[in-house]
């Protein structure tokens, strides 16, 4: 969005969308299917091996066309070109956001940066090949068999998700992830590992993050306690960072450091050397396929017209429900156990990017921006929170993500999983009327009077909006395309909301206060007193020691 672009509520199409939303609020999606015989084909998009079926959304062609007009009013095409062209889209930090360059093979006008990326890819490949071929030996000359990635936020969630999702493609080295400053996280991981066969990747763009540095210091002591000398540590520690000085202070030589750049946000960094643990876990070839899948989605995003642009459509659906139906949350339901970390990854992507209350120029917004994003792997959620999706008072739009085949070889059981996903999507749409509820109770042998009493509790209003994203198989390329799809959706929504999706100033104050409270707990007499509630809780902690 350019500085001169008006904010969402001032865009010409905004008022029209409000009235369309009012007229559709009580519409029946099943009726829309009855009236429009090609709806199941018209509200479907395909790109990069993914299919988005948004035919069960509370939306007709008129509303869709008004939403597309909104995207035009918000100058979305120009904003897409700006992102990919390397303009300063992160205005508060005065940086571009060039995660697309990390998976690009060509980038006109950005050749210098691409050369740096390519050199980093070569280094990643070197380490991935070296570890997978058993050439990396630890201090006892034993071959390294386990890699522990120590990082948090974007330096953890992406790599952890990708390693887990691509487990069927796994090579010879097992990758583990430690993020929490809770000592139990590191302890639980290390208890199954042997120091002489373990390599740590300290993954921190800033190399200043408390959790990561604390865990890394303990890991280094663990290595020393097992007999590693200072010189031996070079065989056991790599760093991914843009702060080479701090990594050197920690004792990691520059040849063991892989770069990060200030033009890549943490939550967009899995495609960089931050993804080294995934490249090691899956082997370089599969990591390249993962990059290629994302690159294909970038090309689709940059070139497809708005009406067939998958990230744009997903974003317009988000805007539709947040701003015109007051939906405060969005649920992502991967029907694949290996994608169980996807909601965590998307949570940071979406909520750290778009949890903002002022415009790019600092004006307080009078409309809602990023919703709460949450979710869990199907079918787990069906036995916990789906009750609220079907009968709760709040509208919570859902994305079902369904790979159509399984790597397990157990296709009969997988059929049940897919059936469950499709059933939940359909149930959200069709709901259950009072008459249907009564009939079902009577069929179960319930007395007519009791059936009449109970029926209201069984009613499901239906018309709960949801999309179904299917992929033939969860391959590295499909995963790359899927993650890039959500990255671009996030950006488009940020553009339409008029916010900067690439900073995260809101996380700073908590970190600062955390340092002050830690000093107070450690007995620092110079630490100024805090509010009475915090002082009381510190005293309570002290009493428990
Ligand atoms: O505190 C939030 C954050 O800065 C995220 O944006 C980032 O992904 C995470 O912390 C980790 O940061 P780093 O990679 O610098 O350790």
Task: Sum this structure up briefly.
This protein has 21 helices and 11 strands. By secondary structure, it is of the alpha/beta class.
Beta content comes to: 5-15%
Write down the overall mean pLDDT. Answer: 97
Task: Tally the helices.
Answer: 21
Oligomeric form of this entry?
single chain
> By helix and strand content, what is the structural category?
alpha/beta
Q: Estimate the helix proportion, in percent.
A: 40-55%
List the strand order in the largest sheet: 1-2-11-10-8-9
List the helices and strands and how they pair.
Elements lengths: L13 H11 L4 H7 L3 H4 L1 E4 L2 E4 L7 H13 L2 H10 L25 H22 L13 E5 L6 H9 L8 E5 L4 H8 L7 E6 L6 H16 L11 E5 L2 H7 L6 E3 L16 H7 L1 H20 L6 H15 L4 E6 L7 H13 L17 E4 L10 H6 L6 E6 L7 H20 L3 H10 L4 H11 L7 E6 L4 H22 L10 H14 L10 H13 L1
Parallel strand pairs: 3-4, 3-5, 5-6, 6-7, 8-9, 8-10, 10-11
Antiparallel strand pairs: 1-2, 2-11
Bound molecules: 6-O-phosphono-beta-D-fructofuranose.
6-O-phosphono-beta-D-fructofuranose binds next to loops.
Q: Could you describe the 3D structure shown?
A:
This protein is of the alpha/beta class and 545 residues long. The protein has helices at residues 14-24, 29-35, 39-42, 61-73, 76-85, 111-132, 157-165, 183-190, 210-225, 244-250, 276-282, 284-303, 310-324, 342-354, 386-391, 411-430, 434-443, 448-458, 476-497, 508-521, 532-544; strands spanning 44-47, 50-53, 146-150, 174-178, 198-203, 237-241, 257-259, 329-334, 372-375, 398-403, 466-471. The strands form two sheets. The chain has a six-stranded mixed β-sheet with strand order 1-2-11-10-8-9, sandwiched between helices. The protein has a five-stranded parallel β-sheet with strand order 4-3-5-6-7, sandwiched between helices. α14 (342-354) links the parallel β8 (329-334) and β9. The protein binds 6-O-phosphono-beta-D-fructofuranose. The site of 6-O-phosphono-beta-D-fructofuranose has 14 residues, from loops.
């Amino acid at each position: 969005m350019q500085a001169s672009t008006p904010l969402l509520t001032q865009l010409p199409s905004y008022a029209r969308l409000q009235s369309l939303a009012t007229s559709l609020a009580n519409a029946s999606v099943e009726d829309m299917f009855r009236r429009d015989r090609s709806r199941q084909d018209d509200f479907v998009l395909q790109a990069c091996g993914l299919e988005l079926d948004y035919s069960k959304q509370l939306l007709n062609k008129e509303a869709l066309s008004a939403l597309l007009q909104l995207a035009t009013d918000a100058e979305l095409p120009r904003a897409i070109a700006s992102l990919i062209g390397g303009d300063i889209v992160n205005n508060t930090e005065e940086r571009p956001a060039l995660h697309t360059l990390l998976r690009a093979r060509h980038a006109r006008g950005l050749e210098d940066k691409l050369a740096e990326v390519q050199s980093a890819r070569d280094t990643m490949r070197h380490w991935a090949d070296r570890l997978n071929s058993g050439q990396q030996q630890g201090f006892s000359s034993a071959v390294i068999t386990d890699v522990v990635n120590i990082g948090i936020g974007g330096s953890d969630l992406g790599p952890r998700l990708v390693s887990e999702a691509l487990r069927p493609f796994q090579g010879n080295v097992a990758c583990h992830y430690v993020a929490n400053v809770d000592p139990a996280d590191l302890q639980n991981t290390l208890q199954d590992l042997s120091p002489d066969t373990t390599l740590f990747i300290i993954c921190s763009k800033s190399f200043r993050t408390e959790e990561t540095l604390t865990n890394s210091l303990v890991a280094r002591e663990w290595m020393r306690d097992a007999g590693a000398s200072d010189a031996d540590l070079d065989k056991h520690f790599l760093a991914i960072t843009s702060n080479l000085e701090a990594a050197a202070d920690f004792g990691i030589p520059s040849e063991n450091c892989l770069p990060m750049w200030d033009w890549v946000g943490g939550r967009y960094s899995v495609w960089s050397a931050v993804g080294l643990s995934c490249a090691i876990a899956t082997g370089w070839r599969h990591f390249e396929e993962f990059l290629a899948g994302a690159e294909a989605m970038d090309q689709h995003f940059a070139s497809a017209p708005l009406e067939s642009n998958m990230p744009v459509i997903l974003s317009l659906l988000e805007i539709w429900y947040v701003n015109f139906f007051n939906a405060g949350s969005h649920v992502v339901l991967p029907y694949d156990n290996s994608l169980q970390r996807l909601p965590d990854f998307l949570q940071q992507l979406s909520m750290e990017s778009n949890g903002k209350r002022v415009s790019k120029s600092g004006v307080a917004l009078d409309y809602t921006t990023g919703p709460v994003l949450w979710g869990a792997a199907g079918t787990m959620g069906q036995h916990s929170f789906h009750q609220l999706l079907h009968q709760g008072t709040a509208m919570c739009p859902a994305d079902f993500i369904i790979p159509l085949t399984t790597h397990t070889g157990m296709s009969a059981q997988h059929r049940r999983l897919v059936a469950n996903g499709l059933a939940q999507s359909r149930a959200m749409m069709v709901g259950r009327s009072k008459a249907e509820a009564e009939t079902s109770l009577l069929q179960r042998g319930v007395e007519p009077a009791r059936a009449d009493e109970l029926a209201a509790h069984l009613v499901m209003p239906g018309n709960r909006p949801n999309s179904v994203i299917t992929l033939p198989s969860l391959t590295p390329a499909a995963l790359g395309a899927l993650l890039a799809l959500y990255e671009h959706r996030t950006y488009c929504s940020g553009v339409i909301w008029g916010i900067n999706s690439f900073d995260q100033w809101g996380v700073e104050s908590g970190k600062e206060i955390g340092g002050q409270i830690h000093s107070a707990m450690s007995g620092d007499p110079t630490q100024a007193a805090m509010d009475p509630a915090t002082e009381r809780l510190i005293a309570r902690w002290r009493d428990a020691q």
